[in-house]
Write a structure and sequence with these properties.
Radius of gyration: 18 Å
Number of helices: 11
Low-confidence stretches: 1-9
CATH architecture: Alpha-Beta Barrel
Strand content: 5-15%
Helix content: 25-40%
CATH topology: TIM Barrel
CATH superfamily: Aldolase class I
Order of helices and strands: HEHHEHEHEHEHHEHEHEH
Distance between the termini: 30 Å
Number of strands: 8
Length: about 300
C-alpha cells in the first residue's frame, strides 16, 4: 500500500457506501423516551453515530456515563464540552442496570465522557456501574470503553477490578495527528493504558479503535496497528471519520471500502484476534458479534 492521501474538496459529497437509511423512527423514539425517563445518555446520540437507527431498531445502545458534558475538546467529537460539568448523578449506575435489563441485553457496552475535573477521573462511578449491571444481568457480557484517566493506572485498575469482559480504549487516530485531533491526550499514554490493562488482567480481551479520513497515510495506519499489537491489544476497529457538526474537523478523505479491507488483512497478519474494518464501523458497533468472533 502506498502512503499517498487524496484530500477531498471542501464539503465533499457523501459517497454511496456511506449512505445509510434512517427509517426506524418509532423504535428510535421509544428507546429515547425510556432513556430520558431514567436520565441516561448514549454515545450513539451525543456523537451522532450514523448507525443509530439500525442499532436502536435492534434494541442496542451504548450507554454513556459520567453525564453528557466532557472536559476535553477533541476536534472530532460532538459531545458537549464544559470545564466543570458538575456533580455526578448517584443514581446513574443503577439506572444503567435497569435500562439494560429492560432492553434484555446480553451484551452491555458502557462508555463515558472525560471527567478530568474529578480526582479519580470518574473511575469509581465507572466501576459501580459495572457492578450494578452484573447484579441486574448476571449472565450478560460487559464491555467498557474508557477514557485514558490521564494515564492513572490506579483509575484503570479500579475499573478492571469490577471485572468487565472486554476493556476498550480508543487511540482514535495516528500519532502525528494527535495535536490536532486529540490535543488533550497523548498517543503513547493511550497505548500504555491498553498495555497495563492487559498485564493487569491477562485473561480479559482488550480492544482499541481509530477513525480514518483525517489526513493519515497508509504507512501511519499500519504503524498504528503494529503499535496496538505491541501493546497486546486483541481487537482493532477502523472506521470512517464523519464530521458531526460544522465546529468539528473537516473530513480530509473518504477512504474507499477496499482500503479498509486491505487494513483488515494487514491487521490479521499481525495476529489480532479480530479486526473489524469498514467505512461505517464504530468502536461499539456490533460489539456483541465482534466479541463472539474474537473468543
Amino acid at each position: 500500500m502506498d502512503g499517498l492521501v487524496q484530500v477531498a474538496p471542501a464539503n465533499p459529497r457523501l459517497p454511496d457506501w456511506l449512505r445509510k437509511p434512517t427509517i426506524h423512527f418509532e423504535e428510535v423514539h421509544r428507546l429515547k423516551t425510556e432513556l430520558r425517563r431514567l436520565r441516561l445518555h448514549t454515545v450513539c446520540e451525543s456523537a451522532r453515530c450514523p448507525n443509530l437507527h439500525e442499532c436502536f431498531e435492534r434494541g442496542r445502545a451504548t450507554f454513556m456515563i459520567l453525564g453528557n458534558l466532557c472536559t476535553r475538546g477533541c476536534g472530532f467529537c460532538s459531545v458537549p464540552k464544559r470545564r466543570h460539568p458538575g456533580a455526578l448523578d448517584p443514581e446513574e449506575p443503577a439506572n444503567v442496570a435497569r435500562m439494560a435489563r429492560m432492553m434484555g441485553l446480553r451484551y452491555v457496552v458502557i462508555t463515558s465522557v472525560n471527567r478530568d475535573d474529578l480526582e479519580d477521573g470518574g473511575s469509581r462511578h465507572f466501576a459501580e456501574t459495572i457492578r450494578q449491571v452484573r447484579i441486574a444481568l448476571p449472565g450478560a457480557r460487559i464491555e467498557v470503553l474508557t477514557p485514558d484517566f490521564q494515564g492513572s493506572k490506579n483509575a484503570v485498575a479500579r475499573v478492571l477490578d469490577a471485572a468487565p469482559d472486554v476493556f476498550n480504549h480508543n487511540v482514535e487516530t495516528v500519532q502525528r495527528l494527535y495535536v490536532r485531533v486529540r490535543p488533550q491526550a497523548n498517543y503513547r499514554q493511550s497505548l500504555e493504558v491498553l498495555r497495563f490493562a492487559k498485564s493487569y488482567r491477562p485473561e480479559m480481551l482488550t480492544k482499541s479503535g481509530a477513525m480514518l479520513g483525517l489526513g493519515e497515510t497508509a504507512p501511519e495506519v499500519e504503524q498504528l496497528l503494529r503499535d496496538l499489537r505491541d501493546a497486546q491489544v486483541d481487537i482493532a476497529t477502523l472506521g470512517q471519520y464523519l464530521q458531526p457538526t460544522r465546529r468539528n474537523l473537516p473530513v480530509a478523505e473518504f477512504v474507499p471500502p477496499e482500503r479498509f479491507e486491505a487494513y483488515r488483512e494487514f491487521g490479521l497478519s499481525l495476529a489480532f484476534k479480530m479486526v473489524f474494518s469498514g467505512p461505517l464501523v464504530r468502536s461499539s458497533y456490533m460489539a456483541d458479534l465482534v466479541h463472539e468472533r474474537a473468543i
